[in-house]
Design goal:
298 residues; alpha/beta; 9-stranded mixed beta sheet; 9 strands; globular
C-alpha cells in the first residue's frame, strides 16, 4: 500500500530542495512529519512546477538524522548546518520527528524528557504506550521504505546518525538493523541508557520494570554481545567535555569499552570547551557527513 506524502513546505537550499512532509503513519497510527533535503544531484525540481520531477530521478545515498529530547523534524535542518556538506557529497538528508504527537497516552505531556518529543526510538510494550509509541518500527521500517521508494534514496546506501537521545537511537538502530544501515555516527549519545536517569525513566515507561528487556535498546550492551564488529569501516562519536550531561547521562566510555571488547573500530573524540548544544554539533558536522559519504560511496 502506497502511503501518501503531503508536502507541507519547500525551500531552495544549496542548489537542492529542503522539504517538509506529513503522512498518515501505519506504524504509529497517527500523522507523522519528517524533513528531507534533496541535493541537486537527485534531479529534483520544485513540487510546485507542473511537469517537473519533484522527487528526482537519480538514486542517491541517504543519511538519516535522529534528533534529541524536545526536538522536532525541523531542529536538525535549521540548526545543524548540514545541507551544504550533503550537497557537496550528493547525500539525501532525512530527519523524522522525535515521537508521536497527540497520542493521548497518560503522562505523555507531563515531562520534557518522557513522552511527547521523547520517543527514545524504541517500540513501546507497556499498555499506555504500546499503541502509538513505535518509533523503531517507524524509523527503521516505514520511513526507510518511504525514503527509498517514494523518494530517490538508494536502499543499499543508507546511514544513520543523531544527537543525545538521537545518538542513542542511531547507535541502537544501526546495530539492530545492520541489513539496512551501512554507516553510523553520533554526537554526545546516551551511550548506555540502562545506567542513566534518562534511560531508566524512558525504559520503565515504555518497556516496563523488567530491566532484562532494556538491554535490547542499550547501545553498549548490544555492542558487547556482538560476535564480530558490525561496522568494520568504523564508528565516529564526538563528545564535548563541557557537556553538562556527560557524567550523569551519557557514559561514552562504556560504549568505548564494548567496542574494544569485540574489536569494533571506534573514533571517540573528546573536545575541550564544547557543551551539549547545536553550536557543538555544527562545528563537527562536516566531519560526520564526510564519514558517512566515504562509507556509503565505497
Amino acid at each position: 500500500m502506497t502511503i501518501q506524502l503531503d508536502l507541507v513546505s519547500e525551500h531552495r537550499c544549496f542548489g537542492g530542495w529542503q522539504r517538509y512532509y506529513q503522512h498518515d503513519s501505519q506504524a504509529i497510527g497517527l500523522p507523522m512529519k519528517f524533513s528531507v533535503f534533496l541535493p541537486e544531484q537527485s534531479g529534483a525540481t520544485s513540487a510546485k512546477i507542473d511537469g517537473g520531477t519533484p522527487m528526482g530521478t537519480t538514486r542517491l545515498p541517504v543519511l538519516m538524522y535522529l534528533a534529541g529530547l524536545t526536538c522536532t523534524e525541523d531542529t536538525f535542518m535549521t540548526k545543524g548546518a548540514a545541507q551544504q556538506y550533503a550537497a557537496q557529497h550528493g547525500l539525501i538528508l532525512v530527519a523524522p520527528d522525535t515521537s508521536p504527537r497527540g497520542a493521548g497516552a497518560p503522562t505523555e505531556d507531563d515531562n520534557w524528557d518522557f513522552g511527547t518529543g521523547a520517543g527514545f526510538y524504541v517500540d513501546a510494550t507497556t499498555p499506555d504506550f504500546a499503541k502509538h509509541y513505535k518509533m523503531e518500527s517507524y524509523v527503521a521500517n516505514e520511513l526507510f521504505e518511504l525514503v527509498t521508494t517514494q523518494l530517490p534514496g538508494d536502499a543499499q546506501r543508507v546511514g544513520i546518525f543523531g544527537h543525545s537521545m538521537g545518538g542513542h537511537g542511531a547507535l541502537v538502530l544501526a546495530q539492530r538493523h545492520t541489513d539496512k544501515f551501512k554507516s553510523v555516527s553520533a554526537f554526545a549519545p546516551i551511550a548506555a541508557p540502562t545506567h542513566c536517569p534518562w534511560g531508566e525513566k524512558a525504559f520503565t515507561g515504555y518497556l516496563g520494570s523488567d530491566r532484562s528487556t532494556w538491554q535490547q535498546y542499550d547501545a553498549s550492551s548490544l555492542m558487547a554481545n556482538q560476535s564480530q564488529a558490525p561496522f568494520a569501516a568504523g564508528i565516529l562519536i564526538d563528545q564535548g567535555l563541557a557537556d553538562q550531561f556527560l557524567e550523569r547521562e551519557l557514559y561514552p566510555h562504556l560504549f568505548q569499552q564494548a567496542c574494544e571488547q569485540v574489536g569494533q573500530p571506534l573514533q571517540l573524540r573528546m573536545h575541550e570547551g564544547y557543551d551539549h548544544g547545536y553550536f557543538f554539533i555544527m562545528t563537527f558536522m562536516q566531519d560526520h557527513i564526510a564519514h558517512h559519504a566515504q562509507q556509503l560511496n565505497a
